[in-house]
């Protein structure tokens, strides 16, 4: 059995109107302390967001999401949060908040490949479900 890596992840969400509690999953953030790994992958489906709030300023949302990825990278361009240790940056990103950009609870897993985990999470939690060719008919 290959050496498995313990990792933590959260789903990144956009909540256009917090009071309605509707959201669209737009990315994932994955942290693996043993590999000093912290990455956020964003796939923003603007049409899905606009379906929830047609007045949403998508440009601001893009900027906020870009900041999450920048904080993962760290360093001076990410500002004061970017200077924190990597694990602290992860905890800052996933801290509960009631703003337009939120994350799910943190989950833990084991894997042999962090890039594969990211793709799997994007496929299952962020990207729209693939159409099933089976049709359902209703009878009265």
Automatic annotation (TrEMBL):
Highest taxon above the source species: Bacteria
Protein name per UniProt: DUF3037 domain-containing protein
């Amino acid at each position: 059995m290959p050496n498995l890596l313990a990792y933590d992840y959260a789903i990144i969400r956009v909540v256009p109107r917090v009071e309605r509690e509707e959201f669209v999953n737009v990315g994932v953030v994955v942290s693996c302390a043993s590999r000093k790994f912290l990455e956020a992958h964003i796939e923003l489906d603007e049409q899905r967001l606009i379906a929830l709030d047609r007045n949403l300023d998508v440009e601001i949302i893009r900027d906020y999401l870009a900041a999450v990825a920048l904080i993962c990278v760290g360093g001076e361009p990410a500002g004061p949060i970017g200077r924190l240790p990597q694990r602290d940056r992860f905890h800052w990103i996933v801290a509960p908040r009631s703003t337009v950009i939120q994350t799910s609870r943190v989950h833990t897993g084991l894997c042999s490949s962090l890039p594969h985990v990211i793709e799997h999470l994007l496929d299952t939690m962020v990207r729209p479900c693939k159409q099933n060719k089976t049709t359902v008919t209703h009878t009265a």
